[in-house]
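@channel anyone free to eyeball this complex?
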Amino acid sequence: MPNYYDLSAESSVCDSEDDAFSNESDDDGTASAEGLASDHRCILHVDVDCFYCQCEVQDRQIPKDKPFAIGQKHIIVTSNYAARAMGVKKLQSRTAAYEACPQLLIIEGSDLERYRIHARKIYQVFRAACKRVHPEIAVRRGSMDEMMADLSVAISIDGDDRVDYSNDNVYIYGANGRESIALTEDQTGVCSKIVQEFQVRSLGPSEWSCSERLQRASHIALQIRREILQSTGFTTTMGVSVNPLLAKIASGLKKPATVNVLFPWRSQSLLASMPLRMIPGVGRTTVKALQHCLEKNAVSSQPNFWTCQDLLSVPKQDIVSCLEQVPLFKHSCEVQADIILQKCIGVDHSQIQDDEGGAPKALSVENSFRRGTLVRKDVLCAELEELYRRLSRLLHERREWSHSSRLAYPTTIKLTLRTVDEKLASKKRRPFVTRSKQSSFDGLAFMQLRDSAQQVAFLKRAALPLLHAFELKSDVIDITRASIATTGFQDLSARPKDSPTYFTQPCQSNMSTFIEQTEHGKSRSPRDALNGASTKMSIHEQASMFHNNKIDPSILSQLPPDVISELRQVKPKKRQRIDDYFKRL
DNA sequence: CTGGGGTCCT
DNA sequence: AGGACCC
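replying in thread with the prediction:
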C-alpha cells in the first residue's frame, strides 16, 4: 500500500467541492486559491547538495563526519554539513571559519575543472532520465549544481502509482488534511515523521486535480533522484510545484536529500514572510531601488528587512516609479513591477526552454588579486599564463558536451580586467571599474592543435592584443581581477528544433527591435510578442530573412544532416568578413 | 564584500 | 561594452 500521505480524509472533502471554495476574491492583489491552482504545470527543480563538498568526498579520501570546507583565496565558499553544524558559514573568511571550528579541514577549490566534470555527468544523467520518462520533457541546466525540468507532458501517462517512499525523505507542503507524513531515514533506520500543515479550507476542484498532478510528479522526481544517486553517487534535493519559482523555493524548504512538494495554495503564507531579497530575480540593486516606497508604505518589522508582504502593501504606481531608477528596468518598469508582484504571490509564467544538451554558451577563467598587489603589467602577463592553461583544458573538455564535436569551438575571445578606481574609492561602496575588450577568435584552428604548449601560445597570441588595447599606463595599474572568456560556440548557433529562440544570432537582434516596437505600441508583454512572432512569421519578416541571406529554420530542419553541417560551416566566414568591415572603420 | 564562475538584457 | 542577476 502506498504510504505517502493520508488521502482518505479527502474523500469527504470532495463532496463539498460545489461551494466550499466560493471565497475567491481578486480585489486587492491577493490571488484566489483556485487561481493559484490554475497553472497546470508540474515543474521539477533539482539542487545537488553542497556540490563542491560531494565532489571532494568522491575525489579524495575524507573521513566520515570530518568537518571540511572549500577554500578560494582567503575565504571559504562552502562547507559540508558537519562544518555547518559548528557554525561555519558560506563566504566566510578563513580566520572566522577556523574560529568557529578549529579542526576544520580546508580544501583548495580555486580551480573548478574537476567540479565541472562532475557537474556535466550529473546533468547528463538527469537529462537522460527525464527524456526516458518522456522525450518531450524540457530540461535545462541552471548552474553547476542546479537543474530544472518541465514534467507536465509526462503527467497524464500512466505510471506506477505504488511507489515505495521508504528510502526517501518526502515532504509535502499544503496537503489537504491537517497533516502529511514525512518519511526520514537516519542511522537507526527508516522512520516517519508527521509534518503539521494547516489546511483550514477544503480543496476546490482545480486544487484537487493540481494535487493529483503534483503527486504524480513527485513520483517521477523520486525515480529521477534515485537514478542520479545510482549513476553518479551524488545526493540531490528536489522541489516540485506548478511553476519554476515555486519549484525552486520548494527545493530549499528542507535540505539535504529530500523531495519537497509545494502546493501553490500553501505558497502564499510561505512567501508573505519571506524576505523580498530571496525572490529569484530580485537582487541587491532592485531592493535598494524599492527601499524608498517600502519605507513610505510598509510597517517595517526590522530596518532593512523587507518581506514580500511588505511589497504587496505598496501601491503599484510607487513601485513602478522606484524601478525607473534601475537602469536595466528603465524602459520596462511596468512589466517588471508586475513580474515582481506576481512572484510575491507565487505566480510565475516563465517557461523552461530545453537547452538541447546543456553545452555552455561561454567558457571563462579568472583570477583575482588583492588590492595593491598587482600593479605591474609584466606581472599581469605572467598571471595570464595560468589562465591560458586552464582555458585550454576547459575548451577541450567542453567537447564532451557537444552533439557535434567538430563544431565545438568558440569564435570570440574576451579579456576583462577589474581595476580600482581611485576617484570612486572614497565614496562608493564598490570602488571598482570593470572593462573588457573582445575580438574574433579562430577557435577551429585552436582546437586542432595537439600540443598543449602550442595551445597556450595560440591563446596568448589572441589575448595579448586585447591587453594592448586597454592602453594601460604602465606605472599605476591596480588590477583586482583578470578573466579570459570565449563565446560564440558554433555548435550552438543553429537549433535542430522549433522554438522561440530558434533564429540565428543576427536575426535575434531583429527580434529585439520587434519586441520593443510591439511593447511601445501596445501593452503586450515581451513573451506574447515572442510567441506571436515564432508561431507565424509575417511576409515582411520572411522577405527580410531572405534578403539577409538567412535560411528559413523550418526548411533548414528538413535538410539532410551533412548539408546542414556544410551550411553551418559557411557562417564563420561571413562573420569574419563582417568583422573585417568593422575593423576598417 | 569576499570568489570563480555562469545567464540574460540592453 | 557593460550591468544585473544567479550559484
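from a first look: Residues 181 and 194 of chain A are 5 Å apart (CA to CA).
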